[in-house]
Amino acid sequence: MIEAKTMNQFDVVEKIPAQRLTQAIFSPTMEPELMLKRAGIIRKEWYATYFNWGRNALYALFKRLPYTTIHFPAFTCPVLTDAALAAGKKVELLEVELETYNLKIGNLPNKDLECLVVVHTFGNPVDIGQIRKRHPKTFIIEDCAHAIFSEVGGKYVGHQGDAILFSLYKQVPNLNGALLLTKERFQLKQETESLISFWPRVIFKTEGWHHLVINFLRHRYIDTLEERAYRDSIQPHPLVKGVFVEGFKQLEKEIAARRQIACWYREELKNHPYLVAQKEAKYGESSYYQLVIRLKPDVAHLRDQVVRSLRQRNIFLDRLWYSAPITEKRFTHYQLSCPQALQLARSVMSLPVNSRMTQREVVTLVRLLTQEIKINL
User: Fold this and answer.
1) pTM as predicted
2) What mean pLDDT do residues 78-95 have?
3) How many domains does one find in the chain?
4) CA 320, 326, 328: angle at the middle one, nearest 5?
């Protein structure tokens, strides 16, 4: 079993450092959108609205949009399409690229698109300018939940959409939180979320030796997506903003480290008999929320067993997004037109890119993963 001191190095779920949590409690809090503006990520004037979860931010946006139909990548987080359906919209799915996992821009329909959600998948940037050339009238929602400091053509993503979503807890370990940027102000009456209402998440998301017990419990199950409610009336606790602001101060440096770690992974995965890494977009640079791979078709059926087995060894990988919309019964009629999205949903695994990881640990993790696949063949 991997020693306790390195247990977080092999976990896709990064934890909040205790020191950062303390700083967030006792330091004055700057609004996260101001930090993003100072870093040059936000380059326009927007109205900022905060929500406890990104799904609620999108639900609020979808409810207020005049469009009846919203297009999504078929391989994405299912809460995006669920939020649209909860808001009374019709959902249509689009094919993605097998290598980059992003929208297959060349296959976008020639007909006018009322509204399109563009996801920078796992931080891998999409050139929205290419979409604008073909569909200049389309209302584009730019999902940057995984993509702070991702770049297209030397510029950060997060300014080409007509509405922009940022996460406060994906790239910066945090409790929850989302920031929605729109051109018109939302008229919302929001209550502030109480920390007491989700104290188990505070425990789970904060670093400490208590994770020896938590991880023992995590050995017993594989993560699944729970059914979620959609409410636009709750904003995050102020502590969430404080943790993001403190974490953001280190984020650019951490992403530089993640990019190096991704290079190590790619070197180990080059010509691998079973695994293929997500290919970085040729016109940009990813921020690497996670290093995501897919199992080749002849071993894809082993994915869940491999993930379960590795959990017994304190190696906590993920399967984002095994439950993508393309896998849902209500969307099965899209599987013929979106076969690559379906293949990804059935074969992807997420590996950690904790900025403290060493090259030796990357080599070790790939070796253990390879061994586990061979054992289960």
Assistant:
1) 0.94
2) 97
3) 1
4) 95
Nearest Cα neighbor of 150 from 15, 9, 283, 45 is 283
Rounded Cα gap, residues 213 and 211, in angstroms: 5
Range of the domain at 178: 4-376
Distance CA 67, CA 79 (A): 19
Q: What are phi and psi of 317, to 5 degrees?
A: -90, 180
φ/ψ (deg, to 5) at 141: -100, 120
Q: Measuring CA to CA, which residue among 19, 29, 20, 59 is closest to residue 232?
A: 59
CATH of the domain at 217: 3.40.640.10
Distance (Å) of CA 116 to CA 32, 142, 152, 224, 331? 26, 9, 19, 27, 17
Q: Is the N-terminal amide bond of 209 cis, ω within 30° of 0? A: no
- Locate 151 and state its tokens: 């770049």
Share of the chain above pLDDT 90, in %: 81
